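Pinned message: reference record for diguanylate cyclase
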Amino acid sequence: MLFRMSLNRLFWLISILLMLLFLVLIGRIVSSEWAVYERSTKSMPAIRNLQLALLAEEKLAAERGPGNSLLLQEPDAAAKEFAGLDQARFASDRALASLRRALQMQAVPQLAPVIAHVASTEQALATMRKEMDLLLALPVRQRDVAAVDAVLQMMARADSGFAPAIVALADVAVRSDPQLSDGLEGALLASSLRNIAGRIGAVFTAPVIAHRPLTSQEIYAFSRLSGEISQLYSGIELQLRPYQDNPVLKAALDAVRDRYLGAGLGFLNELFAIGRSSGDYGLSAREMVVRYVPRMAAIPHLRDLVLAEMLQQARRQNRQAAFFLVAATVLGAVALAIFVLLMQVIRLRVLRPILDATDLFVSLADERFNTVIPMPRHDDEIGVMMRVIHVLKAHSLAKVRLEKQREEMIAQLQTLSDTDFLTGLLNRRAFFAQGEQQFGIAQRYRRQLTLILMDVDHFKTVNDRYGHQAGDQVLRVVADLCRRHHRKVDLLARYGGEEFLLMLPEIDLSQGFAAAEKLRCAIDSCDCQLDGGEIVNVTASFGVVAFECDNDLESLIGRADQALYQAKHSGRNMVVAAPRGKSDETIIFA
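Predicted structure (tokens):
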């Protein structure tokens, strides 16, 4: 019967059969990608919830440090600890509130127990803080030891009692996507390592404050926690093996090993050795915190990177699944329309050329001009379009070349406008443009900043005796010496005439003076040979100031100019620095 069927009907029958087969395959693809899409859609908020919970746990643990210190010393001797406690409480409250809002916005039944646990943690935290504040209002000698121990226990319970919420959120994340189990376990182990790192550091709080040796309980606690830290790090390495090809995570894991297990735990081991003998630690509790706590930062950094990697992985899967879902659906619809509505001639003469032309337009839009444009085989509309694409390609190539030339010319003009024509250094305008940025950073964040104003001594005598060309040559030699003696981050400019400016970020006054003195010696010992063979020795005077309370860059330069004026009138060939806190005085360092 197939042989007696017309070619037209046979074409449609075969087309329908192929379309059914195609739709079955598309259905399988859509079903598979929908499962991936649904899984990744659920896993992304689950990972974010876990991130917020781990952050809240970290902030709760961080609140214990200043609390412990304050409970064991006089309040008036712990002003910085009070400020630190207020900041830690604010951070804890904000982290818990962020977690609670995120959980409430999702309205998922599985999260109801976690929301209740967060609320109970906030209540317990408020109760503990109230009891602590009552104790902190009393002098140390009037504080009941049992009450202090009770508050410390309440702090520990508020910290460790948050673990069930984290376990529940981790379970939700794993159930949403089982492929995340290794990464989640690694993140949880890193969080546990961070908590134990805080607890092992807290072992030394009371002994350091009291300047006493460790008790047997403290020695046992330190030994036990040290063992747990080694086990946790081994577990983290094992769980993160699937991510060992990720250089960022590998570097973060190495940082935990070097910065914390090496430097941080090594510091505690030194205190432990002292605590087992004399108890003369030679530092305060705050100094111990300053030396120890920053080395713990590598642990939460690793934890956050792992969670970020998993979240990014879930996002990639979600985007890819969504893309495949849309692509499969569109492809099915287009294929059905092609098989049902279009004829073979249209498919060969219209659809395929249009798709090829689309790819060519995309290539031209992406500036991939090496794409070969086929010559039209038919003298029809498609052939005209192909010829037009050839013309567009030629025009696009010309446009790209013109744009490139324009950008090169703009870059050259920018360089010329910022450069002093004689010395090749920044000119005055460029120095102020870049110097204002550095000054703004120092002013906003109270960072160190030093400014050096330099003037070549008796430069007019050089011009009068040897000529202006010789003077220009001397200025170029001085500029080259300045280049050799400044860092890449420093700003070096010709301020005008024989004056040069050097801005040193992150440098204090003494370091700036040392840099100026080094440059002064280099200029003093340099023999400048002129084109006529003469040897000219020049010196330079320097004014050095450090940023203090200056309102703008002009005032800072003004103070440097005053110091330079003092150097000039004190004999030249010397460095004069305006000391910090004495803007109306200068001190000569020769």
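Pinned by admin. Summary line: The first strand starts at residue 449 and ends at 456.
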